[in-house]
Each structure stands twice: as structure tokens, then as C-alpha cells.
Specification:
The chain is α/β, with parallel strands linked by helices. Among the domains are: 330 residues, Catalase core domain (Catalase HpII,  Chain A, domain 1, Beta Barrel); 147 residues, Class I glutamine amidotransferase (GATase) domain (Rossmann fold, 3-Layer(aba) Sandwich). It is built from 20 helices and 18 strands. Helix 4 packs across helix 13 and helix 13 packs antiparallel against helix 14. The radius of gyration is 29 Å and the shape is globular. The relative contact order is 0.09. It binds CIS-heme D hydroxychlorin gamma-spirolactone 17R, 18S.
Length: 702
């Protein structure tokens, strides 16, 4: 192709459509693939100049050097070189979607906020769900808290409810946040581990921070291994205030409850998912929205007065404490539906800037010292991340109600305010913005006084009672998972004094848990950590379980059907129908993608090729095989892993005779979760949950 020359003009007709190739070309994409025909807008530079050739830079001679005057090439290079902005320091990996909030029950008695008092009104919003520790390119399924941030574009301005999928936090005071995050992130000398708490720095910090113990119980539970972002709860964490017209205020905690119920993965499954599909959660959310199965949550509140708060056996201003639902029940007030995927990931999901300080009239802050620190941090971080004080003008961040003031200029100013008045008060303008004394934002008139000092209140001293409450409220299966997560994490810690200190804390939480972990690590009995306050026995809260909050439904779940040459076509069709009727998605997996010849001679196209579609991607599996197919797959490690993993991950397995043979070949013994496909209803019932009783037969739990 030495003398090959490309001239795109010769290859397109007057509308820019591809014309038959007449010239020899060197490496033109049009040569290799068919380019879609249509009414295309002209490709231009950023100055609007239309581009004649986007395949070849300007050269002197056929093989000569590129010329500096090629402004088309230079503009592309310049823009590309500046495509990245700093990723978020925490919560860098996230998935976002547009939607709406609809109020069902008015809180007008408590607040002037229109979004919480106008029943039936739909408020547009943008939600971003994230992991905390990993970078933007990390995987979706590490053991990690999920951020749950919602920006409501209310009629009275933007309200950002920036929460997590866990109702408590590691620390009580904002001044410790930076140490916590440094400790959890990759270690600064080695640069690893990415997106994992299983390392010395994290557990060193935690073992020296007893206030973290309650959150540690949550992160070691299956809450940090969600099956889907559509199956997590969200919590505002801190107490906020609702403020009424008269200035009276009521404390409030916000909760999101998923319509699909809660569900988590098994640790081994989460690890394998990271390899099978690093975008597992993002893809799940994308596919659900594209299919019109819009993710939905209820918004619920816990409302309580100052005198009720004074009677709690803990301090609600301490973000390491939750208010059990049994103490203050949840009141459901509305729903959030996510119904539109962003047009552009960067413009929306990456550039969205949440600030807990964004509240609207009628909503106010509490004195939680963690919240107070957050009120400063987020605006500050957006300034460095988005690079301009005008980031509120980016469409995903801009309020959808009128807004204006006398702030002017700055980097990347998009507005062109008219007139000569850029201050207030002013006698020279009739229409420049003024204060709104009655309806404008007013803080709740709360009396605060005290001696200045770096003080941790006595009421924050109890670090173990709620950790114990959480652990003891779990089912036995969930308790075992917490113990084995602790053994796994601490087994990655090289310094034994850190492991010992952690076991000392666990002894304060629950002796039997400490023993399980110590035994799992091969350690002998260790001293208890000192406790600053008496550990209280609290009434158990089953609402803290996941298993108790799974829904009796296959909505949002996926069943994989493994088939091969010679499988029974009628059985496959009937299984597909039954699963789809029960509300789940179905995917057929086969050794080849293009077509599998079934026993009846028909050809079946698969949705996934066996080696690239492991059973971790499904909630339950069905195996329909001929005897010959079973024999063939018994020699295929991906088929053996398919059924073994489904078994080890406690999934229901539906089988015909050939399927049963493959299970036998994989060394799997029958149990109640392995069900003949002739008993389809029993299989569907089993597919709605995990086969918890199987667990003891597949792994050693401490
Ligand atoms: Fe954040 N947090 N945080 N955080 N946080 C950030 O802001 C911070 C805390 C949460 O999808 C940062 O825009 C401090 C609790 C979410 O864009 C930063 C403290 C809770 C997101 C920041 C906390 C959260 C963030 C990094 C302790 C649950 C992602 C990038 C005082 C209630 C939002 C950014 C999104 C992000 C600071 C603790 C939730 C650095 C100082 C508690 C969901 O400003």
C-alpha cells in the first residue's frame, strides 16, 4: 500500500453517503465495515468548520511529515488531552440515572418544604449509586458500602440527600474522615490493594477506633455484597430537621426501601462476578431501565421530637448509631422511580455534584458533627473536581426552578447577566434579585451555647451496644457470614497485634463471635478491649436482617438455562415460559452462540456462550441436556464450574435427566434445592431465595 492515497470526497455522494469505492485506500474504516447510511450532520471542528477528511492528517507529500498547520488534527489532540477531570476522592465509581419522586403522604404538619407537602406532585431527580473505596475504573462488586445520592430538582431549589446503603458511619467527628479514607484506600507505598478493606492500614486504623465497631459489623455483613443496585436500601444517616411555618422543628431520618426487596450475593460469588462482569451492577441498572423495568424505592421517614430523642439510650447526633425501627417506626411518604438512563455518562453521572448543604426551606441540619463537616467538604471538593465556581450551571447540576443572584464571572461562566447592577441592595434597578424574607430559607431557631473546646460528648461513649444489637439481630446464616468475612479480612493482615486488637473488640460485641474469629485465625483467647461505657442489652431488631427483607418474588431476577446439542426443545420452551411468567428474565447458555441443534431438529440461538457466561450471572439455573450432551459437558470445565458454582452459591437448580447426569459428573449430591423440571412451581419457589441449609455442606464457616 506504498502509494495508497485516500480522498474521502471521492467516496461520498453530495449528501455525504458512502459512494462505491473507486480509489485504493489505506486502512479506511469504510473499507472494512459498512457505514450506516442516513441524514448525517456535517462533522465540524469546534469552530463550526466542516471537515472534509477525518481519516488522514495533512502531510507534505504522500508519505511526508505531518504539517503543524493541520488545525483539524491539533484540535482533536488538544481536546483529547484534556478529556479527563479528577475523579472523586471517594465514591469514584458510580452509576447514575434520572427519575422522579412522587409524594404520597404530606408532611405539611412538620415542614414548609413543598416537595414534602404537595401530594401527587412529581419532582424530577438524578440518583447516583457508588462504591466508596475503588477508583472510577474499579469493579462493581467489591465488599464495600454503596453511596446513595439523590438530587431532587424541587420547585424551591435543589435538595441533595447524600446517603449510603448503611445507616451508620465509621466515625463520630468529621476531623477523622481523612484518616479513615487514607487508611482504606490503597497503601501509599505499594499502590494496592484497589477497592478492598482487607489490608493492614485499614484494620490498624479500625482497631484503634472503637467507635467504628458498629459500622464494622455492617460492612462485614452481606449488606456490602448487593446482588443489584435495585436491591439495596438507602439511608440519609444523620438526623436532619423538618421546620414548620411557625419555626417548630422535628427531627427526621430518611430511608429508601427498594421495591424489589433486599438481596445480596455470597462472597465467593461476588469475587467471581468481578471477573465475569466488572460492570455487573451498572449493566443490571442499564438493562432494567432500557427494558422499562424501572428501579423503584419507597421514601420513608422516622420522625421524632427533642424529648423523644432525650429518652433514647444513645445519642442520635452520633452517626455511629441508628434508631431501631422498633423504637421509631418508619412512615412511608412517597416513591422514587428511575426511568431514564443519562444521554452521556461523563456529562451527567461524572459531572453531577452532590452537596449535603443543598437543602430547601423547611429542611435543616442537626448538630451531628459528621454532618457539619460534610456541609463544608462537598462544595470544596466540587471546586477542585469540576474546576470552576460555575459548576452549578452544568445542566445536571442546575436547579430547574428560576435562580439568580449577584455572583458574577469566574472560570467557564455560561450566563450573560444583563444590566449594570451586580450588587444588592440597589436603588438603580427595578428587577434585580432581592431577598424573600417570608418564604426564603431560614434556619430553625435553635438555641445553642457552650464552652469552646475540642470535646467528645459523654453520650457518644458507647461503642459496642449497637454493634452487638446488629450482630445478634441477624439470622444464624448471616451471623456466620459476618464471622467468615472477619476471618477473611483479618487473615490478609500481616501484623498480628492488629488481629489481636480486633478480636479484643469482638469480645466486647459478642463472645461467641470473637471465638469464631479467633478460631478461624488460629489464635488463642485474647484480652477484651477496654470499654468506655457499659455495653447495654437492646431489644433485637429483625429489621436489620437481609434475609428477612427478601421479597417473595422473581422480579428483577435472572434464570440461566444451560443447553447443548440434542437438548429437549419442548422442555426448554416450557421452562422459559414458566420462568418469564413468574417475572424473571431468562437467558439460554450453550457451548456455541450462533445455534444449537436440539433433539427435535430445530436450531436454538443462545444468549450467552458457556465459557463467557458463568452461573454467577444468574439467580437460579436450569440444566436441560441429552445424555450425550451431558457426557460432552462433563469434560468441559466451564460446564462443571457452571453447576458447581450455582450449587456453592446456594442457588436453586432445575434439571431434566441429562441435567441430573451433569450434576452427578460434577460430584454434586442431591438436595432440596435440586428440583426436577417437571416440578416447575417448586423450582420457581426455590429460585426466589437461597438454599441456606446447603451452606454447611459447601464451605467451612467459622
Ligand atoms: Fe461523603 N464525600 N464524606 N459521605 N459521600 C464525598 O464528595 C465526606 C459521608 C457520600 O455520587 C466527596 O463529590 C466527608 C457520609 C456519597 O457524587 C467528599 C465526610 C456519607 C458520596 C466527601 C463524609 C457520605 C460522597 C468526594 C465525613 C453517607 C458520593 C467526592 C465528615 C451519609 C456522591 C464528592 C456522588 C462523596 C466528604 C462522610 C456519602 C470528599 C468530609 C457519612 C454518597 O466531599
Amino acid at each position: 500500500m506504498k502509494n495508497a492515497k485516500t480522498d474521502i470526497r471521492r467516496r461520498t455522494d453530495s449528501k455525504g453517503h458512502m459512494a462505491p469505492q473507486s480509489q485504493p485506500v489505506g486502512g479506511n474504516p469504510g473499507e472494512l465495515h459498512q457505514i450506516a447510511a442516513g441524514e448525517h450532520a456535517p462533522l465540524t471542528t469546534n469552530q463550526g468548520v466542516s471537515i472534509s477528511d477525518n481519516q488522514n492528517s495533512l502531510k507534505s507529500g504522500t508519505r511526508g511529515p505531518i504539517l503543524l498547520e493541520d488545525f483539524v488534527l491539533r484540535e482533536k489532540i488538544n481536546h483529547f488531552d484534556h478529556e479527563r477531570i479528577p475523579e472523586r476522592i471517594v465514591h469514584a465509581r458510580g452509576t447514575g440515572a434520572h427519575g422522579f419522586f412522587e409524594l404520597k403522604e404530606s408532611l405539611a404538619k412538620y415542614t414548609t418544604a413543598k416537595i414534602l407537602s404537595e401530594v401527587g406532585v412529581k419532582t424530577p431527580l438524578f440518583t447516583r449509586i457508588s462504591t466508596v473505596a475503588g477508583g472510577a475504573g474499579s469493579v462493581d462488586t467489591p465488599r464495600d458500602i454503596r453511596g446513595f445520592a439523590v438530587k431532587f430538582y424541587t420547585k424551591e431549589g435543589n435538595w441533595d440527600l447524600v446517603g449510603n446503603n448503611i445507616p451508620v458511619f465509621f466515625i463520630q467527628d468529621a476531623i477523622k474522615f481523612h484518616d479513615l479514607i487514607h487508611a482504606v484506600k490503597m497503601e501509599p507505598d505499594s499502590g494496592f490493594p484497589q477497592s478492598a478493606t482487607a489490608h493492614d492500614n485499614f484494620w490498624d486504623f479500625i482497631s484503634l477506633t472503637p467507635e467504628s465497631m458498629h459500622t464494622v459489623m455492617w460492612i462485614m455483613s452481606d449488606r456490602t455484597l448487593p446482588r443489584s443496585l435495585r436491591m439495596i436500601e438507602g439511608f440519609g444517616v444523620h438526623s436532619f430537621r423538618l421546620v414548620s411555618d411557625s419555626g417548630a422543628s422535628t427531627f427526621v431520618k430518611f430511608h429508601w426501601r427498594p421495591k424489589l426487596g433486599l438481596q445480596s450475593t455470597i462472597w465467593d460469588e461476588a469475587v467471581k462476578l468481578a471477573g465475569a462482569d466488572p460492570d455487573f451492577h451498572r449493566r443490571d441498572m442499564f438493562e432494567a431501565i432500557q427494558a422499562g423495568k424501572f428501579p423503584e424505592w419507597e421514601l420513608a421517614v422516622q420522625l421524632f421530637s427533642q424529648s423523644e430523642a432525650d429518652a433514647f439510650p444513645f445519642d442520635h447526633l452520633d452517626a455511629t448509631k441508628l434508631i431501631p425501627e422498633e423504637l421509631i417506626p418508619l412512615k412511608v411518604i412517597g416513591r422514587m422511580v428511575l426511568d431514564r438512563w443519562p444521554n452521556n455518562f461523563f456529562a451527567e453521572t461524572e459531572q453531577v455534584a452532590f452537596c449535603p448543604s443543598n437543602v430547601v426551606p423547611g429542611i435543616d441540619f442537626s448538630n451531628d458533627p459528621l454532618l457539619q463537616g460534610r456541609l463544608f467538604s462537598y462544595l470544596d471538593t466540587q471546586l477542585s473536581r469540576l474546576g470552576s465556581p460555575n459548576f452549578h450551571q452544568i445542566p445536571v447540576n442546575a436547579p430547574k426552578c428560576p435562580f439568580g443572584n449577584h455572583q458574577r464571572d469566574g472560570h467557564m461562566q455560561m450566563e450573560q447577566p444583563k444590566g449594570s447592577i451586580n450588587y444588592e441592595p440597589s436603588s438603580l434597578s427595578k428587577d434585580s434579585p432581592r431577598e424573600t424574607p417570608n418564604a426564603g430559607f431560614r434556619s430553625a431557631p435553635v438555641q445553642d451555647s457552650g464552652e469552646k473546646g475540642r470535646i467528645r460528648p459523654e453520650s457518644f461513649a458507647d461503642h459496642y451496644s449497637q454493634a452487638r444489637l446488629f450482630y445478634l439481630s441477624q439470622t444464624t446464616y448471616e451471623q456466620a457470614h459476618i464471622a467468615s468475612a472477619l476471618v477473611f479480612e483479618l487473615s490478609k493482615v500481616a501484623h498480628t497485634h492488629i488481629q489481636e486488637a480486633m478480636v479484643g473488640h469482638l469480645r466486647r460485641i459478642e463472645e461467641s463471635l470473637a471465638k469464631r474469629v479467633a478460631d478461624g485465625l488460629g489464635m488463642s483467647q485474647l484480652p477484651k478491649a477496654p470499654a468506655a461505657a457499659l455495653v447495654k442489652q437492646m431489644k433485637l431488631s429483625p429489621a436489620l436482617q437481609i434475609i428477612g427483607k427478601m421479597k417473595d418474588s422473581l422480579d428483577g431476577r435472572t434464570v440461566g438455562i444451560l443447553v447443548a446439542k440434542g437438548s429437549d426443545g419442548a422442555a426448554i420452551r416450557s421452562a422459559k415460559r414458566a420462568v418469564a411468567n413468574a417475572g424473571a428474565s431468562v437467558k439460554v447458555v450453550a457451548p456455541t452462540l450462533g445455534g444449537t441443534k436440539l433433539a427435535d431438529g430445530s436450531m436454538l440461538k443462545a444468549d450467552g456462550q458457556l465459557a463467557g457466561t458463568p452461573s454467577v450471572l444468574f439467580d437460579a439455573i436450569v440444566v436441560i441436556l441429552s445424555e450425550a450432551g451431558a457426557n460432552m459437558l462433563s469434560k468441559e470445565s466451564s460446564a462443571i464450574d457452571f453447576v458447581r458454582d450455582a450449587f456453592a452459591h446456594l442457588k436453586a437448580i432445575g434439571v431434566d435427566r441429562g441435567g441430573q447426569s451433569l450434576l452427578k459428573g460434577a460430584g454434586l449430591a442431591n438436595d432440596a434445592g435440586i428440583i426436577g423440571i417437571s416440578e416447575m412451581q417448586a423450582f420457581l419457589a426455590a429460585a426466589k431465595t437461597r438454599q441456606w441449609d446447603r451452606e454447611a455442606s459447601v464451605r467451612t464457616l467459622p
